[in-house]
């Protein structure tokens, strides 16, 4: 039986393996497998909410094993470390348990068709001290770590043991992640005062958002980026544009001009790259960000049996631009890869993927949402803000849920979510 392995159960990979499991695995037409280094799935664009405590990864995560059971594929816990294209095998690294004891030894899995969907990691561009002192938001564990550190700082602040008159946080990167996290942190502070964190109010935060470019949110039109910046400044965020960070230390960030931006909690969200081990993996072609080069059908340029989707794919479009690393790209690529894998199995011609940009939206917690929409209904770009923008922003996550669970289950999940909002605290408090 044909063996199909999807490595990476994220925004793109989990949608794809779910479709393949339903179409092929359940009917015994192929053996469909998912490999992921985590046991549960959390949609990556929600990580800043986990970091601020607005979402609990433990409760909102989806178990790969149970999802696999329900959708006709098998799940293998493990981290891809190598690829042998001649033998058509992948290697999963040996795994340790939580206490550091060996748990699983190195394993190999055979494939006929392989899909790589392992996403991206933050790119610190080799900046001194960043990997030691800054937290990245690449994985749920890192977002949870940031949340723990944040709660510790707040506790020290209310107990008078912080050693500073403010909780000093610096975020590097004025893209969507940095902007959304900034707003989410002010929302967190406002809620925490209701849960026994006396004297905690927005004034206790000194939050600096640092951007090397001339303005934040380069993907949005000037006017919307300006609105977002105004909203952040009104909340109390010190937005620094044209500011290049050259070093991170235990005291804060050092800028190119030699200024110290004091911070004890620092997040680096300024750019991404594909994981380093993808460089030259199996002799495949990469770009300088380690992304694997694919042709229009999403197959790698050097091996037709390997597809790559999502952030780790380098897919050039007719206009010479690469498909951007975004959730909507991963969603669209998952649908196209599904179609093309079925075509490959049935000896039919494969289709070329054309990226459709439906716009960008940035959610500033409960304060506002801004963005631009594009599509066939609108000629050009439509700028949106407020409640309508928030509904459209949420719909991207709903589309992901629908791809995984179908409409009825997604509707039930939304209903349960509403009830939980009444029953659970507004923030994760531990
Ligand atoms: C905080 C934040 C906010 C964002 N907000 C938005 C937004 O509003 N809109 C938008 O369009 N995009 C947003 N993005 C970007 C978006 O999350 C990504 O573009 C999208 O998740 C990419 O999907 P993917 O399937 O390629 O990878 P991912 O969703 O990252 O999934 C990768 C999967 O691979 C697994 N994996 C990684 N390495 C290995 C390995 N070696 N072996 C096995 N498994 C592995 C991971 O555990 C993960 O499950 C945001 C990103 C962040 C960090």
From TrEMBL:
GO MF annotation, one: NADH dehydrogenase activity
A Pfam short name: Pyr_redox_2
Transmembrane segments: none
Protein keywords: FAD, Flavoprotein, NAD, Oxidoreductase
Location of the FAD/NAD(P)-binding domain: 3-334
Keyword Oxidoreductase assigned: yes
SUPFAM superfamilies noted in UniProt: FAD/NAD(P)-binding domain (SSF51905)
Cross-referenced InterPro entries: FAD/NAD-bd_sf, FAD/NAD-binding_dom, NDH-2
Family to which the UniProt record says this protein belongs: Belongs to the NADH dehydrogenase family.
Protein name per Swiss-Prot or TrEMBL: FAD-dependent oxidoreductase
Organism in which the protein naturally occurs: Oceanisphaera profunda
Lineage: Bacteria, Pseudomonadati, Pseudomonadota, Gammaproteobacteria, Aeromonadales
């Amino acid at each position: 039986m044909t063996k199909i392995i999807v490595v990476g159960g994220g925004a793109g990979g989990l949608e794809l393996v779910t479709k393949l499991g339903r179409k092929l695995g359940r009917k015994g037409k192929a053996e469909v497998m998912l490999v992921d280094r985590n046991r549960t799935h959390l949609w990556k664009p929600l990580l800043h909410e986990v970091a601020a405590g607005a979402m609990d990864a433990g409760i909102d995560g989806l178990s790969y094993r149970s999802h696999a059971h329900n959708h006709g594929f098998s799940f293998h816990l493990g981290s891809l470390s190598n690829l042998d294209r001649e033998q058509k095998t992948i290697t999963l690294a040996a795994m340790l348990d939580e206490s550091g004891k060996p748990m699983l030894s190195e394993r190999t899995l055979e494939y006929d068709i392989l899909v790589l969907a392992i996403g991206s990691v933050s790119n610190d561009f080799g900046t001194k001290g960043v990997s030691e002192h800054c937290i990245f938001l690449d994985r749920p564990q890192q977002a949870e770590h940031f949340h723990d550190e944040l709660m510790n700082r707040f506790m020290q602040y209310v107990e008078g043991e912080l050693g500073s008159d403010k909780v000093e946080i610096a975020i590097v990167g004025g893209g969507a992640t940095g902007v959304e996290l900034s707003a989410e942190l002010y929302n967190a502070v406002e809620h925490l005062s209701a849960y026994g964190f006396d004297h905690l109010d927005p004034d206790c935060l000194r939050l600096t958002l640092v951007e090397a470019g001339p303005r934040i949110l380069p993907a949005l039109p000037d006017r919307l980026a300006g609105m977002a910046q105004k909203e952040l400044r009104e909340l109390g965020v010190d937005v620094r544009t044209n500011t290049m960070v050259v070093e991170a230390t235990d005291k804060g960030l050092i800028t190119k001009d030699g200024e110290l931006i004091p911070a004890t909690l620092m997040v680096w969200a300024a750019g991404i790259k594909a994981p380093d081990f993808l460089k030259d993996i199996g002799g495949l072609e990469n770009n300088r960000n380690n992304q694997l080069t694919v042709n229009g059908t999403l197959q790698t340029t050097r091996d037709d049996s390997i597809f790559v989707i999502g952030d780790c794919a380098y897919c050039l479009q007719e206009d010479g631009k690469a498909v951007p690393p975004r959730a909507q790209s991963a969603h669209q690529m998952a649908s196209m890869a599904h179609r093309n894998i079925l075509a490959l199995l049935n000896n039919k011609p494969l289709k070329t993927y054309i990226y459709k940009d439906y716009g960008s939206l940035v959610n500033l917690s409960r304060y506002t949402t801004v963005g631009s929409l594009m599509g066939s209904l609108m000629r050009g770009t439509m700028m949106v803000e407020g409640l309508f923008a928030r509904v459209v922003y949420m719909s991207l996550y709903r589309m992901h849920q629908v791809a995984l669970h179908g409409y009825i289950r997604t509707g039930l999940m939304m209903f349960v979510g509403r009830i939980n909002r009444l029953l659970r605290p507004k923030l994760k408090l531990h």
